[in-house]
Description:
By secondary structure, the chain is mainly alpha-helical. Helix content is about 55%, strand content about 5%. The protein contains nine helices and five strands. The protein has helices at about 5-25, 35-65, 70-80, 90-105, 110-190, 210-215, 225-230, 255-295, 295-335, and strands at about 395-400, 420-425, 435-440, 440-445, 450-454. It has a five-stranded antiparallel sheet with strand order 4-3-2-1-5, with no helix packed on it. Strand 2 and strand 3 (about 435-440) form a beta hairpin. The termini are far apart.
Amino acid sequence: xxxxxxxxxxxxxxxxxxxxxxxxxxxxxxxxxxxxxxxxxxxxxxxxxxxxxxxxxxxxxxxxxxxxxxxxxxxxxxxxxxxxxxxxxxxxxxxxxxxxxxxxxxxxxxxxxxxxxxxxxxxxxxxxxxxxxxxxxxxxxxxxxxxxxxxxxxxxxxxxxxxxxxxxxxxxxxxxxxxxxxxxxxxxxxxxxxxxxxxxxxxxxxxxxxxxxxxxxxxxxxxxxxxxxxxxxxxxxxxxxxxxxxxxxxxxxxxxxxxxxxxxxxxxxxxxxxxxxxxxxxxxxxxxxxxxxxxxxxxxxxxxxxxxxxxxxxxxxxxxxxxxxxxxxxxxxxxxxxxxxxxxxxxxxxxxxxxxxxxxxxxxxxxxxxxxxxxxxxxxxxxxxxxxxxxxxxxxxxxxxxxxxxxxxxxxxxxxxxxxxxxxxxxxxxxxxxxxxxxxxxxxxxxxxxxxxx
Length: 454
């Protein structure tokens, strides 16, 4: 491999110089150009956005895929730019085991029939989970990764360039300050010889041509030579170091005071020119970095939209799970009621219902539960003609239906969301059920599907 040794040495010298300068700034031994308060707030906001985006991304990945080994596998496939293999969900795997167990234990037995029904429900749950993971990955995880791997890397690169420009600017300020101080000292002390090592970076060395000139001037000069070249009188020869720049390569002997002052003036002019260039580059880089940091607001807007989409997909997923489990509960209750009466009963403390706009003071603060076996009509009661039941003289109320409800048998009344019906209770009825009337139709309705109106 071809190495450019000069460039390598130059980069190493610059790195060392900046490291020393940065350390001196940390210990308060060097001046530091401070950024304005607005710029500092933009930097802090960008850092917070990056840190919290990483945390949200990692935890969302844990939510969608709790298995750490599967997450590592997906990460490796993504880095290798290969398609992630299709993986069955836990619900689908459970459904497969249940179906195989039913076929072996007997699909016509009560246990086998129940296994088949539960396997079908678990299969639907697994498919819903797969859709949710796919949708959340596209609509939520991908934008977060794109920000961290794209926009944030660009911001970090420009911030590093800004830091280097600031160090160069501070070095130019320090050089100009030293040059002006040395010029003032030379003006006050006429016999002072310029020492440019005080104003040059630490990695400057004596050039080859300057060394050759230095050897020629080391011989003792004659009185005639000194008197001809320096009318002001003889002074002891002295030399100084200059940078590796052909246009500036120089080795001097003793100079008269006017020549010393001229060289100091030139050094101050050069320092001022370098400061102007460094200031221009710093201002340009600061503006570029500021524009990128202000773009964090657009990133927040984009992430907000993605967050809404994630919540929508999660709501759809849980609604599907609730519907599938409610159907399974109805199937198990209606099919097992004659064989194992009272074994499939709803929980005493029902969970929360799906999203709705009901008031917390209404009776609809619990999740709608399917009818228990004890509530379902037996074969002898199925022929009960509810239309012959007369409503009580008092105690009827209006109720608004919260969710759609499909009647399990002829003794129940099918409901549509947001419709108004008349409800009342009969002596001896289960408190979780009411008699509902809509026009000429009448039947039992679950209380948790209703919002009773005063």
